[in-house]
Model the fold of this input.
Amino acid sequence: MRFAFDIEVSIAAALLLAWNWRWLMAKPPGQANWRHKAAMTGLAFATTAAALFLIAALIRHSPGMRMAEVEFRTLEFMGGLGIAGIVSALLGAGTPRIFAAVWSILMILLCFLEFGVSGH
Done:
């Protein structure tokens, strides 16, 4: 059994992440210190993990491509980016910290869900 709505979930995540980035870029930070930069880096890690989730879903649903090893490595890298995003969110400060933590946790949960249903 496969995760049936993985492409739809990844597209919805991409749209919501684009809104988060637009909202964060529209309001200037009070003080762009290292903690604010760490929180923004955590959100960048989560955004990259979401892009990898979309790539893995497209690889999985391509009719001529059955690259299980590439998909497996993509999910591993996605989980690593999610963990890096959580660490950056813990070090960060401000509103980007909340977005980074929530999105990183969501990406790790999606990664575990994909590992669980893929049979690896």
Observations:
- The chain has a mean pLDDT of 82.
